[in-house]
Design the sequence.
């Protein structure tokens, strides 16, 4: 029997400030599959920060990049809820 190639997850509707919101379980699934604790996760389109949040919750490091400054501000605000700043 072959595994399914479809990942079944609940839809995301809580993040209305970004047009491509998805549940944290989606990047978490791939992060768990392809990385180990303390590995680096690169998100070249950080958007609202979902992948970075999932990475931090799974004890991974992350680098997030986006050309939209507003998305970077949103992501930073969201990430700080999971990873408080050590220094100001």
Sequence:
């Amino acid at each position: 029997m072959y595994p399914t190639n479809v990942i079944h997850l609940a839809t995301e509707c809580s993040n209305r400030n970004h047009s491509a919101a998805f549940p944290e379980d989606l990047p978490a699934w791939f992060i768990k599959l392809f990385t180990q604790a303390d590995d680096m996760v690169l998100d070249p389109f950080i958007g609202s920060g979902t992948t970075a949040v999932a990475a931090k919750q799974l004890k991974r490091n992350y680098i997030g990049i986006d050309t939209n400054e507003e998305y970077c501000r949103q992501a930073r605000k969201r990430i700080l809820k999971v990873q408080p700043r050590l220094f100001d």
About this structure: The chain has a mean pLDDT of 84. Residues 3 and 29 are 15 Å apart (CA to CA). The radius of gyration is 14 Å. Residues 25-82 form one domain.
